[in-house]
Structures are given as structure tokens and as C-alpha cells.
């Protein structure tokens, strides 16, 4: 199933489900739904997370924005050298990380930085009296957890760990940990992630939701890139729009949106 189809169905259905639970919806919940609908394919060997979801002009624009952001980080964060150069390098590398090995190296580098920041602390420099002074900011355990999961995803094959119920639980738990006061965040994000797995289970490859158990969830209704996939993806997208219309328009679910 194409990334754009995952994006539309996962985001629409998950937000509609959260609305049916009468949960107040926020922009953060929408963002969690968008990311959750695409996140299982972070281990995709042929493309970046968004490269199968956005048209080429939008991707080129995104790359340009990232390069501009890299330059801005390097310039505006000059007092925090050398970390401004590290942030600039990571953003710049992400633009060209279309090769699997390069992307793996980038993901492992970010994972190592997150784990270090979570367990040890964040090394930092501040200017005092015109001279840079070294300091170590307190670590955040959540950063270490996120780094560990990211590193694991970088090393495993496509449709490996990220396509399991374990990964779904970890993602949902992280969202709850980040925003416990906003239930729509973990509800929409978790449902979107799970829906991605369920739709992938409808392809010929299927998924193994509970490794090391050999049981495979596979209902081969469609094959990626084939006519059957186009038919079912169009059907799922149409059903998503119908559900969104019923929940947010006919049932008044739009009133649950808060700023």
C-alpha cells in the first residue's frame, strides 16, 4: 500500500475514531495521527518516510526547506558551537539520505545522540563573561527510549519490528508519556499506527505481528504496485472520506476541535 494511501486512511480513520470516543481533538492529535500512519515504514529500504507519500515537487520543496533550516541552525546557534554544526550536518544529511546504508548510519547517529542525552545528559556551552562555559544539562529518560527504538528500527529489515504489535504498544505508550493530559494524541496516533499494520496485512507479504511466533497475518487481497492495490486503495480512501463526513459533519464531530 502506498504511503499516500496510508496517510489518508490512517489520519482520517484515527481522528474519526477519537471523535467517536468524544475526545477533544487538538493539532497535536492530528500530528500524531499523520506520523503514526507513516511511521511503520521508517525501515522502508527504498525511500524516506515521506518520499512515497508526497509528490516530487513537494519533496523538492521539503528538501530546500531542510537545507535552509540547516543553514539557519548553523548561523543562529553560533553561541552553542560546536552543536550548531552538528545540527546543521544532521539536517543536511537528511536531505540526501536516500541510500539505505546512509540512512541507517544517520538513524544510528541520531539514536546514539538521543541515548546519550537521555542517560548521561546534554553537553552544552553557554557564554559567560564573553567566554564559552561547558555545562551538562540533566538527561531525559524518554530521549533514551526513543533513541533505542530508533536504533533498533535502523538495523531491522523492512516489515520487521516496526510492523509488530510490540512497536504499536511502544509508540502508543510514548505518546501517552509525552501528552498524558491529551488523550486524543495517543488515541489517534496509536490507531493510525495499528491501521497501517492492518492494511499491510491485506497484501501478499502480510505481517508477523507477534515475533518470535511464526504466525503471519496475511489476507492477500492486493499486491503493491498492481491493479488490485489501486482498486482497494481507492476503495479505502473513499470509505475514509465517507466516515470523516459522517463523523465530523453529520454527527457534529467538528465541535470537538480545540486550538
How is the topology of this model organized?
Layout (H helix, E strand, L loop, with lengths): L2 H18 L6 H12 L17 H21 L6 H14 L3 H20 L2 E7 L2 E7 L3 H15 L9 H14 L4 H18 L26 H24 L9
Antiparallel strand pairs: 1-2
Protein name: Metal-dependent hydrolase
Pfam families: YdjM
InterPro entries: YdjM-like
Task: Please summarize what this structure is.
This protein has helices at 3-20, 27-38, 56-76, 83-96, 100-119, 141-155, 165-178, 183-200, 227-250; strands at residues 122-128, 131-137. With 259 residues, the chain is mainly alpha-helical. The protein has a two-stranded antiparallel ribbon with strand order 1-2.
Short descriptors:
mainly alpha, globular, 259 residues
Task: Describe the protein's architecture and organization.
- The chain has 259 residues and is mostly helical.
- It has a domain at 1-45 and 165-259.
- It is built from nine helices and two strands.
- It has helices at 3-20, 27-38, 56-76, 83-96, 100-119, 141-155, 165-178, 183-200, 227-250; strands at residues 122-128, 131-137.
- A two-stranded antiparallel ribbon has the order 1-2.
- Strand 1 and strand 2 form a beta hairpin.
- Helix 2 (27-38) packs parallel to helix 8.
- The longest helix is centred in the last third of the chain and has 24 residues, at 227-250.
- The radius of gyration is 20 Å and the shape is globular.
Amino acid at each position: 500500500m502506498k504511503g499516500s494511501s496510508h496517510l489518508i486512511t490512517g489520519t482520517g480513520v484515527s481522528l474519526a475514531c477519537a471523535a467517536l470516543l468524544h475526545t477533544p481533538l487538538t493539532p497535536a492529535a492530528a500530528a500524531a495521527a499523520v506520523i503514526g500512519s507513516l511511521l511503520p515504514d521508517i525501515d522502508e529500504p527504498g525511500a524516506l518516510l515521506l518520499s512515497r507519500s508526497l509528490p516530487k515537487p513537494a519533496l523538492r520543496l521539503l528538501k530546500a526547506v531542510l537545507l535552509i533550516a540547516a543553514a539557519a541552525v548553523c548561523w543562529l546557534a553560533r553561541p552553542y558551537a560546536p552543536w550548531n554544526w552538528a545540527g546543521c550536518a544532521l539536517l543536511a544529511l537528511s536531505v540526501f539520505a536516500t541510500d539505505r546504508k546512509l540512512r541507517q548510519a544517520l538513524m544510528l547517529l541520531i539514536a546514539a545522540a538521543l541515548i546519550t542525552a537521555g542517560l548521561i545528559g546534554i553537553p552544552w556551552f553557554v557564554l559567560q563573561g564573553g567566554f564559552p562555559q561547558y555545562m551538562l544539562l540533566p538527561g531525559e529518560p524518554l530521549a533514551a527510549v526513543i533513541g533505542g527504538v530508533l536504533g533498533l528500527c535502523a538495523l531491522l529489515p523492512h516489515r520487521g519490528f516496526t510492523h509488530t504489535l510490540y512497536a504499536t504498544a511502544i509508540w502508543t505508550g510514548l505518546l501517552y508519556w509525552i501528552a498524558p493530559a491529551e488523550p486524543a494524541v495517543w488515541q489517534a496516533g496509536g490507531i493510525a499506527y495499528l491501521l497501517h499494520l492492518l492494511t499491510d496485512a491485506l497484501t501478499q507479504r502480510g505481517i508477523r505481528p507477534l515475533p518470535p511466533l511464526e504466525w503471519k497475518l496475511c489476507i492477500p487481497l492486493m499486491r503493491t504496485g498492481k491493479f488490485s492495490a489501486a482498486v482497494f486503495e481507492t476503495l479505502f480512501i473513499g470509505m475514509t472520506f465517507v466516515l470523516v463526513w459522517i463523523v465530523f459533519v453529520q454527527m457534529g464531530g467538528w465541535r470537538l476541535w480545540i486550538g
